[in-house]
Amino acid sequence: MVNKEFFAALADLVKEKGISQESFIETLRNALASAYKKQYDNGADISVELDPEAGTIEFRATRRVVAEVTDRDKEISVEEAQELNPAYREGDEIIKTFVPKDFGRIAAQTAKQVILQKLHEAERDSTFSAFSDKEGELMEAVVRKTDERNVYVELGEKKIEGVMLPQDQSPTERYAVGDRLKVFVKRVKNSGKNSQILVSRAAPGLVRKLFEEQVPELAQGIVEIKGISREPGHRTKIAIHSTDARVDAVGACVGNRGSRVNAVVEELGGEKIDIIFWSENPLEFIAKALSPATVISVTQISEKGAVAVVPDDKLSLAIGRDGQNARLAARLTGWKIDVKSVSAAEKMNLHTEEEMPAEEEIAEQAAPEEASAAEASGEAEAAGTENGAGEAAAEPAEENKEGE
């Protein structure tokens, strides 16, 4: 027999766990009806009514009055209905209330299942509610387990599970159970049973957040990160800009004796970082983006295409190993960049002083700061490959979204 104590216990549970009473009652109603049908293999149209105020649960079997019966569990003929009450007419509904024989056992089992289900849902919703504002943030994580594809980590004090998919893992890192690391919360998906918190060690956003941790000027808005292009585990280019002419943006990001950039490099497992001055002049920006190579000139040849000319002995440095330096520069600037040596440019009758400050001016503006950033991050790369007669081409990839 269900009494008011049963509903009082449910009310306390609802209040304690923050579950909606209406939602709980609705779920319990449907679960009891389903349990009854399963128990008695009954095709009748069964519904359940719960009244927490009165402390009652009532089962109802509904049958429709029809001229010709095709389903006796759900229908009754006009003649039979009128034997019960002469006032019944075709189309009316006859509702019979009853209590099943084994109702106590059915109710107990069903209520337990519904309670466990609702507690699980409440815990999941609470978790994702707490993490909804963490998307795009940096978090401490501990590796809990790994499989052939994914890495599973625990986040926060409540040890909520996050998933690092293959594309979000750095190719140069190996993850072992118990490892502590910082991850970028890429996405919080709350979609029922498939809810997930996706984290990343490969997203450009990870580099941004690591610098924000180290550089107070970024939090203050004095220094801005204008763009990041990254090949995880290998190299990152980050374009920065100072909103205050008195503040050296590169120096702020490098830190005293390279302390700030080195902290980021260490967290990324030795990944090389080029810190570059952003420029609103796209051709000047391209020259800076090809750092650490010296660029003699940059000429625009199409709407988003340019030719960068470098000294013959700096061609491999400008291109980078397997074209990496030029490729990252293209992604950072959003331009297609052809890198050519001076000798190759002369053979093609390309001018080397168009639409760009002279080489001496560029060196005077950028060399000291960018050299210090390169030195602080361990930059000393001269290996590369030459393509054809001293040239290489790099195209910007699709927009590098920091959350991906």
TrEMBL record:
Highest taxon of the lineage: Bacteria
Family annotation (PROSITE patterns): S1
Domain called S1 motif: residue spans: 136-202
GO biological process: DNA-templated transcription termination; transcription antitermination
Entry's localization field: Cytoplasm
GO MF terms, alphabetically ordered: DNA-binding transcription factor activity; RNA binding
The keyword Signal appears for this protein: no
GO CC annotation terms, alphabetical: cytosol
Region described as Disordered: 351-404
UniProt feature, compositional bias: Low complexity: 364-395
Keyword Transcription regulation: yes
Quaternary structure and interacting proteins, as annotated: Monomer. Binds directly to the core enzyme of the DNA-dependent RNA polymerase and to nascent RNA.
Physiological role: Participates in both transcription termination and antitermination.
Family: Belongs to the NusA family.
Protein name as catalogued: Transcription termination/antitermination protein NusA
Organism (species): Candidatus Scatosoma pullistercoris
